Amino acid sequence: MYYLSRDLYFPPVTEASPEGIVAIGGDLSPERLVLAYQNGIFPWFDDEEPIIWWSPPQRMVLYPDELKISKSMRNIINRNTFKITFNTAFKEVITNCRNIKREGQPGTWITPEMIDAYFELHKMGYAQSVEVWQDNVMVGGLYGVDLGHIFCGESMFSKVSNASKMAFIALTKKLKEENYRLLDCQVHNDHLASLGAREIDRSEFIKIVTN
């Protein structure tokens, strides 16, 4: 297992463990986070653990052209029940992602340290958010890291039915309009699979990220 020093370096993802751990340790400085995402790596760890850096052998992604919107979801969109904004309340979005209770999960990987780190990335223009509003109240949203040709999704939340789907769909449509190559969803999730996301080999993902 590779342990990071203060140097801004990650080993090749081909040296990751079978489950996809690339390295352990280091810090969440903006420079290291940007380097990680540019190399197909992301941090994911519990509060009691050291920082763990991942690049899974199978990567869940959505190609914007493959977005699936159900008939019922199209009806909800057409009702204009929700208002969508971009980058108007980043810290509120990431804080909600941390605090929302998720079925089957006792806690969250979004530590206060991570909130501070991604807020710094947001101020630098890398980390971005999508907000979903209903009656002027934020009811859903998502955030991630924007690499210019790929958006690396990190987390989303929903306080009412379909709010996170609205954020995901709005983001995907925006990425398609701006000719992004894909939306990175990291690991398999049935909810995202229902929206068109699928797994590809890490080698294929890395080629897209680095070109």
From TrEMBL:
GO terms for molecular function: transferase activity. The keyword Iron-sulfur does not apply. The keyword Cytoplasm applies. It catalyses: L-phenylalanyl-tRNA(Phe) + an N-terminal L-alpha-aminoacyl-[protein] = an N-terminal L-phenylalanyl-L-alpha-aminoacyl-[protein] + tRNA(Phe); N-terminal L-arginyl-[protein] + L-leucyl-tRNA(Leu) = N-terminal L-leucyl-L-arginyl-[protein] + tRNA(Leu) + H(+); N-terminal L-lysyl-[protein] + L-leucyl-tRNA(Leu) = N-terminal L-leucyl-L-lysyl-[protein] + tRNA(Leu) + H(+). Pfam families: Leu_Phe_trans (PF03588). Its EC number is 2.3.2.6. Keywords: Acyltransferase, Cytoplasm, Transferase. It is found in: Cytoplasm. InterPro entries: Acyl_CoA_acyltransferase, Leu/Phe-tRNA_Trfase, Leu/Phe-tRNA_Trfase_C, Leu/Phe-tRNA_Trfase_N. Functions in the N-end rule pathway of protein degradation where it conjugates Leu, Phe and, less efficiently, Met from aminoacyl-tRNAs to the N-termini of proteins containing an N-terminal arginine or lysine. Belongs to the L/F-transferase family. HAMAP family: Leu_Phe_trans. This is Leucyl/phenylalanyl-tRNA--protein transferase.
